[in-house]
């Protein structure tokens, strides 16, 4: 306890306003009785007399416990710890089952309505001038906004994509719309490769493949006359940011390279100052592939290089075609290899298991000899590690 | 699963649920205090707070075995920059590299390719995101992780088309999981739409055609028996209420011994005559329902209360609510300025929790 210059029995300035009001509890404006709420608001508007919770009369600094937002939890006033009052006053503001224009309403300590045009340009509408400096009038001039018209541009720029106010590093990323999915599916059905569609539409490779897989199921359900939950899909998409389909979509970055665990450790390497040390050298020093190969969509580097060299478009298209052909050939070969391997083994299907019998030599499987299997024992749960498609 | 008070108002804990009490608790949630605490106390408190959010139904032993100290991150590469040079400019000279934009004397700021650091501590609980129950919750197929877990345990979730009754199944990149759409609609739907009362229009039509085709074909297994030919009002355009259906069927069960039933049959017949569309609905009409479309799918759907606060789908999932399928694309990663794991804790708290779980603390 620090020495008190003022006896605690006397009323301090801090005690005029209770301790819990001086704290930055987001609930307070809602929980306080109306007269007190108004007086508090007036206090907060008038900066000359800031509310001080300090017990010391002369001190201007806030006490550590009250100032930091890491305060211990204190019982919230009100019925059932303020829950009843919160459900009445705050919950209707937080609950928004149908947000407009995909502007999500996530948790925020200050539930605000959408910004209106009234405040920005209601009183002094901007005058527009043509080249000669005359004021544009008549049909060309923009309509004056209504008093309560929503300023959608401001709403879009100011929208918070952070669902948790206490964690700014988690941001909601938009999902792709149903129209976007359809476009991806149509492109793949037209015979383009997943890699190409991914680069065209700026969607990750995996996402493109997943969209096509699920679209196939959707189509199958349609054939089976099985209804889709389109009502739910539309309502769910309305709640979150959605990247809509447009001509050149920018959904996400497609060249995100995984940080290799080998690069986490420091590596000391003596390199001559006069020698260039490239990405390739770095990869060799770490014993991993260079970034040019590890990066997804590494073929884009070659495209950019050709562009820098000033090659014409026909040449670039030809190179692209050859690369795709080679890729397709490699995939075909791999498929054939896998099929040949599968054909070699005998498959015995039961209702529970799919036994794949492979030819084996007695001596080489000996490490399992005599080791009991616990998978049929009572109480031993063996969770499978993968499910083969 | 240990029984505990999940949504206590007196001692609020952050949970992964859309429950109204939990929303209130999250609304007034405060991050743990670190001032005036020893490092051990800070770590312990951070670990407590973060574990209350992440898999509180798992024992500490189980989670400890899942924890990995390696954290996944990605760096955004620029193909144009990589094409322009071989990267030697970044480490030219004595290793500090060449400044692309020469710095002015006096300006201390250095423009870096990645201005914001990668929030690696946010990835502490990344292994839990691989769990099937968490993924089902993240795909917005359930309103809490515990509900998602119960879906798994009850065998309502399948992975790659096979039933997976283990909530702790670790999804692999490329795994497709699915839940029964009806269950999803009920789980994340509003109270008013929870009871399956109304038949959808296609379901009504399908029902009518199925019954009519059965009536036409006397040799079929589902041939309309003469005993069941009590007519009921069933205009396809009218709203068919499942409850009303069953009730009226029970009321008009043909029972020749009682005069009451006869009179009732007469009244229903009158009702049918009043309607233009004459359609006979047997007592066992449920058996005529074709497998797909199922009669319980409804046309209108309202989201559950407070769903908008939790309506986000992380980038490592691709979800299709039309068919209630989702694909786990890859493991979650952190990138410059953002991480893919939703939680209310800041980097400092997560860093402390991460330090707690490192072997030597």
Automatic annotation (TrEMBL), chain A:
<feature type="compositionally biased region" description="Low complexity">
    <location>
        <begin position="45"/>
        <end position="63"/>
    </location>
</feature>
<dbReference type="InterPro" id="IPR021036">
    <property type="entry name" value="Ribosomal_mS45"/>
</dbReference>
<protein>
    <submittedName>
        <fullName>37S ribosomal protein S35</fullName>
    </submittedName>
</protein>
<keyword id="KW-0687">Ribonucleoprotein</keyword>
<dbReference type="GO" id="GO:0005763">
    <property type="term" value="C:mitochondrial small ribosomal subunit"/>
</dbReference>
<dbReference type="GO" id="GO:0032543">
    <property type="term" value="P:mitochondrial translation"/>
</dbReference>
<feature type="region of interest" description="Disordered">
    <location>
        <begin position="45"/>
        <end position="71"/>
    </location>
</feature>
<dbReference type="Pfam" id="PF12298">
    <property type="entry name" value="Bot1p"/>
</dbReference>
<keyword id="KW-0689">Ribosomal protein</keyword>
<feature type="region of interest" description="Disordered">
    <location>
        <begin position="111"/>
        <end position="148"/>
    </location>
</feature>
<dbReference type="GO" id="GO:0003735">
    <property type="term" value="F:structural constituent of ribosome"/>
</dbReference>
From TrEMBL, chain B:
<dbReference type="GO" id="GO:0003735">
    <property type="term" value="F:structural constituent of ribosome"/>
</dbReference>
<dbReference type="GO" id="GO:0019843">
    <property type="term" value="F:rRNA binding"/>
</dbReference>
<keyword id="KW-0699">rRNA-binding</keyword>
<feature type="domain" description="RNA-binding S4">
    <location>
        <begin position="130"/>
        <end position="193"/>
    </location>
</feature>
<feature type="region of interest" description="Disordered">
    <location>
        <begin position="87"/>
        <end position="115"/>
    </location>
</feature>
<keyword id="KW-0687">Ribonucleoprotein</keyword>
<keyword id="KW-0694">RNA-binding</keyword>
<dbReference type="InterPro" id="IPR036986">
    <property type="entry name" value="S4_RNA-bd_sf"/>
</dbReference>
<dbReference type="InterPro" id="IPR002942">
    <property type="entry name" value="S4_RNA-bd"/>
</dbReference>
<protein>
    <submittedName>
        <fullName>37S ribosomal protein S4-like</fullName>
    </submittedName>
</protein>
<keyword id="KW-0689">Ribosomal protein</keyword>
<dbReference type="InterPro" id="IPR022801">
    <property type="entry name" value="Ribosomal_uS4"/>
</dbReference>
<dbReference type="GO" id="GO:0005763">
    <property type="term" value="C:mitochondrial small ribosomal subunit"/>
</dbReference>
<comment type="similarity">
    <text>Belongs to the universal ribosomal protein uS4 family.</text>
</comment>
<feature type="compositionally biased region" description="Low complexity">
    <location>
        <begin position="87"/>
        <end position="100"/>
    </location>
</feature>
<dbReference type="GO" id="GO:0042274">
    <property type="term" value="P:ribosomal small subunit biogenesis"/>
</dbReference>
<dbReference type="Pfam" id="PF01479">
    <property type="entry name" value="S4"/>
</dbReference>
